[in-house]
Amino acid sequence: MTVPEGAFNFDLCKRNAYLESRGVKAPGFTKTGTTIAGIVFKDGVVLGADTRSTAGSTVADKNCEKIHYIAPNIYCCGAGTAADTENVTGMIASHLELHRYGTGRGSRVVTALTLLKSHLFKYQGHVSAALVLGGVDLNGPHLFTVYPHGSTDSLPYCTMGSGSLNAMAVFEASYKEDMSQEEAEALVARAIRSGIYNDLGSGSNVDLCIITKGKVDYKRNVELLMGKTYSRQKPVRYAPGTAPVAREKIVTLKDVAVVPGDLTEEAMDTS
Does residue 236 contact residue 82 with C-beta atoms inside 8 Å? Predict the structure, then answer.
């Protein structure tokens, strides 16, 4: 048996064409979208998300924000339809701000949870917003998942989105109680990284949001996992001789004949 020369082997193309002619449907890629995660450590909550936004099989945005502001002490990661997650979280943030003005008290995480689940349940899952809600209030750190149809869970660590299984595998293998902030940040970043490398729709960079009592640290692009491996020179300069010159003709300005045109004025059409 002779080994075909060259870098590619297209023998399977004939096999695939034959199978399609016999009615066998070729497998396709899974339509995917996001990896978001959160974890509770001894002093607060760490939320994490990737930064890839997809439109079908097209990458629409390489560095979008998936961690949304809810209140000064509460943030929320969103998976699903971008318009739904942004508008739902923005609406709840507005309600909580009016509530703080009216009562003079800080927002509680359970208040944001109740508003979110009540709104999503009314639409029976047609509002595509899968959320990871985290924050710190007078009762300590809290972490919740909110599903698009309105059901919720309260967990010490959670994941959502199409890359959630990859991230959950990392959490289940390495989570421990009373983690330090540094350990929690590293674990969430590793979980998001697992989703980015193993899920088609998750990608680009890692964002983290660390919420502690009286302080929020929102870290954009903690890890640049899919940055360019080259730097392009602008404008592009090509070395002499890159393109062969087939014919060359140089014309000086004194050899150019100027033909005067018709300089008569025409009436402007105002119709």
Answer: no
What pairs with residue 206 in β-bridges? 50, 223
Report the length, in residues, of the chain: 271
d(CA 144, CA 186): 20
170 Cβ partners below 8 Å, 6+ apart? 187, 190, 191, 194
pLDDT the model gives residue 29: 47
Please confirm whether the linkage preceding 141 is cis (ω < 30° from 0). no
Angle of helix 164-174 relative to helix 181-198, nearest 10 degrees, comes to: 140
Residues with catalytic function: 34
257 falls in which pLDDT band (50, 70, 90)?
A: confident
Question: 3-state class of 98 per DSSP?
Answer: helix
Q: What is the per-residue pLDDT for 263?
A: 56
Task: Average the pLDDT over each of 20-29, 37-46, 259-268 and give the range with the smallest value.
Answer: 259-268
Q: Which residue has the tokens 């140089």?
A: 250
| CA distances in angstroms from 6 to 3, 9, 10, 47, listed in the order given | 9, 8, 11, 48
Residue closest to 68 by CA, chosen among 53, 87, 54, 43: 87
Q: Characterise 87 by phi-psi region: left (phi > 0), alpha (psi -120 to 50), beta (else).
A: alpha
162/164 Cα distance (integer angstroms): 6
Q: Which amino acid is at 253?
A: L
**What pLDDT sits at residue 55?**
87
- Please name every residue paired with 159 in a beta bridge, in sequence order, or none if there are none: 37
Q: What is the sign of the dihedral through the CA atoms of 136, 137, 140 and 145?
A: negative
